TrEMBL record:
Keywords: ATP-binding, Nucleotide-binding. SUPFAM superfamilies: P-loop containing nucleoside triphosphate hydrolases. GO terms for molecular function: ATP binding; ATP hydrolysis activity. GO terms for cellular component: mitochondrion. This is AFG1-like ATPase. The keyword Cell inner membrane does not apply. Gene3D superfamilies: P-loop containing nucleotide triphosphate hydrolases. Signal peptide: none annotated. Belongs to the AFG1 ATPase family. The keyword Transcription regulation does not apply.
Length: 467
């Protein structure tokens, strides 16, 4: 399910996400001859990591070295793993999936769940593994984007069935479960999946993870994941968390759990106090406005004119006052005051290579609860899609997130409590969605990413991909 403020658009998700499998997944045969496996025995992420340390591209880090050894072990196991030939799908109708499945479980190598504090190099190490492993049915994806695609597939399957999931029944008496056919399709397309930012904040995701991943693992899927939380803390204090808890031992049974905490945030290391793409409103004047000058410079390379822009997102028209080509000059109000969610920010990140965020206030859990939640999602999405960001704020970066105690329940939260029949004295009233705990946990990651995204190094690295 989508974030709460955009869940009403779930029926329209497939219009956009039906293209995602073609974009993310590759259905090619695995190169798995014994000679190839033997020739790869001295290759993999460890060799690449060692070379980058030797060249000075990476710093020596004993904590990272320990993790890369674990990834090298997974590398050897998956490259020597011979998967059973998939059953032929030719001639099968859609409704053949509705019959009670009798698949044979595939015992695949264990994956790896890597967790630790922000900026320690978790994603970098996973990407080294992904880049070097010679598996063609592989996928590297942000966990939030993956779950959006899962919900879109489920919705599409329900539409094709011609009936709602609650009313459609298989040959027995149980309601139709779309999870097995969705998991089967995913595994056929990509049986090695690398998840960045494995986190669970949405109750809709939490409720299906056990069934979904049980099917994926039974189908022989191997999972590599990075996260800021250890498995036992996933969906911590989440709404109806008792229904989520059975997922944790399943994850542990199929992934080795490794912690990476070097005590260094490499996104900030060496940056000093240089915030080259982060500006303070108080320092800008009509005669000396570095932000306007930067916008003019960037749009000089575009073939479009400066104009308002209307983007159709999942059947809705979302208007922005100022853009030019693939450069969006927006405000915090446009991006975070409106009811936008992860799916909206994903479309924005695919439409623009550079996003200006003006008039960013100091964000507190008390005054900007909904906006803070959206802003964190926005930054995560832009970062994962390598979008360049310019920020114009009211305060220094380290003062951007104000930690204060939340004392009041917002109207939207009160409505959710009423729908779920949650009283203010019940245990569920202390869930993270109402207390703001999840947002405050995420601010360190968000700030670390903001600091990296506005440096010259980040801009130069991802600017090379812009033509």
């Amino acid at each position: 399910m989508l974030a709460q403020n955009s869940c009403c658009y779930v029926p329209l998700l497939f219009k956009y996400y039906k293209k995602v499998p073609q974009e993310y997944y590759q259905c090619l045969k695995l190169l798995s001859t014994q000679a190839t496996k033997q020739s790869l025995s001295t290759e993999g992420p460890l060799s690449e990591y060692t070379q980058r340390v030797s060249s000075g591209e990476l710093s020596e880090d004993s904590h990272q070295e320990e993790v890369i050894q674990h990834l090298q072990q997974v590398y050897h196991e998956v490259t020597s793993f011979v998967r059973p030939a998939p059953q032929s799908q030719s001639g099968r109708s859609l409704f053949s999936f509705f019959k009670k499945p009798q698949p044979q479980k595939i015992i695949a190598p264990k994956g790896l769940y890597l967790y630790g504090s922000v900026g320690g190099g978790k994603t970098m190490l996973m990407d080294l593994f992904y880049e070097t492993v010679p598996i063609k049915e592989k996928l590297r994806v942000h966990f939030n984007s993956f779950m959006l695609n899962i919900h879109a597939r489920i919705h599409e399957l329900k539409i094709k069935s011609g009936k709602g999931a609650s009313s459609f029944r298989d040959e027995g008496s149980k309601p139709f479960d779309p999870i097995p056919p969705v998991a089967a399709d995913i595994t056929q397309e990509s049986w090695l999946i690398c998840f960045d930012e494995f986190q669970v904040t949405d109750i809709g995701d939490a409720m299906i993870l056990k069934r979904l991943f049980t099917q994926l693992f039974d189908n022989g899927c191997v999972v590599i994941a990075t996260s800021n939380r250890k498995p036992d803390d996933l969906y911590k204090n989440g709404l109806q968390r008792s229904n989520f808890l059975p997922f944790i031992p399943i994850l542990k049974a199929h992934c080795n759990i490794v912690q990476l905490d070097s005590g260094v945030d490499y996104r900030l290391k060496g940056s000093g106090n240089k915030y080259s793409k982060y500006f303070l409103n108080s320092e800008l004047t009509p005669d000396n406005n570095a932000v306007d000058n930067l916008f003019k410079f960037l749009v000089s390379k575009e073939t479009d004119t400066v104009r308002p822009r209307v983007i159709n997102i999942l059947g809705r028209n979302v208007k922005f006052a100022k853009s030019c080509g693939r450069v969006l000059d927006s405000t915090f109000e446009e991006l975070c005051d409106r009811p936008l969610g992860a799916s909206d920010y994903l479309v924005i990140s695919k439409t623009f290579h550079t996003v200006f965020i003006r008039n960013l206030p100091q964000l507190s859990i008390t005054k900007h609860r909904s906006q803070l939640r959206r802003f964190i999602t926005l930054i995560d999405t832009l970062y994962d899609n390598r979008v360049r960001v310019v920020i114009v704020a009211d305060c220094e970066p380290k003062m951007l997130f104000k930690s204060d105690e939340k004392t009041e329940i917002e109207d939207v939260e009160r409505a959710l409590m009423d729908d779920l029949k949650i009283t203010k004295d019940s245990e569920d009233a202390k869930a993270a969605i109402f207390t703001g705990e999840e947002e405050m946990f995420a601010v360190d990651r968000s700030l670390s990413r903001i600091m990296e995204m506005q440096t010259d190094e980040y801009w130069e690295k991802w600017g090379k991909q812009i033509n």
